Amino acid sequence: MQRDRFDRIISFLLGASWAIVFFGALITFKSFLFLGLGLSLFITLLYILVSLFMILGLDAFAINRQKLVEMKKQTKLLEKIHSKHTK
């Protein structure tokens, strides 16, 4: 299956986003640990939640792209069927 440039970019961004979430959570936790364990955990979970929404947005782009490609295929098929029946 050949993938176009958009799909490759989205896949790369999704992988990079997961890496940013994991390493960012670790860095966030260690950065705020001096304020206490509870507050550090809360801020880290808040960071993870916001980051996961961004990943969800990227995933929505990928899903909508696949949906568009499938709709284009279906439109071509319907046009062929319509042209056969209207002759």
Keywords:
single chain, 87 residues, mainly alpha, rod-shaped
Structural topology:
Blueprint: H1 5-31, H2 37-86
Helix pairs in contact: 1-2
Description:
With 87 residues, the chain is an all-alpha fold. It has one domain. The chain contains two helices and no strands. The protein has helices at 5-31, 37-86. The protein starts with a helix and ends with a helix. The model has no long low-confidence stretch (mean pLDDT 91).
Condensed summary:
The chain has 87 residues and is mainly α. The protein contains two helices and no strands. The model has no long low-confidence stretch (mean pLDDT 91).
Largest sheet: none
The figure for the number of domains is 1
Mean pLDDT: 91
What overall geometry do the principal axes of the alpha carbons give? rod-shaped
Query: What's the helical proportion of residues?
Result: over 70%
List unreliable stretches of 5+ residues.
none
How large a portion of the residues is in β-strands, by DSSP E?
A: under 5%
What is the β-strand count?
0
Distance between the termini: 35 Å
Structural class: mainly alpha
> How would you spell out the order of helices and strands?
HH
The Rg value, from CA coordinates, equals 22 Å
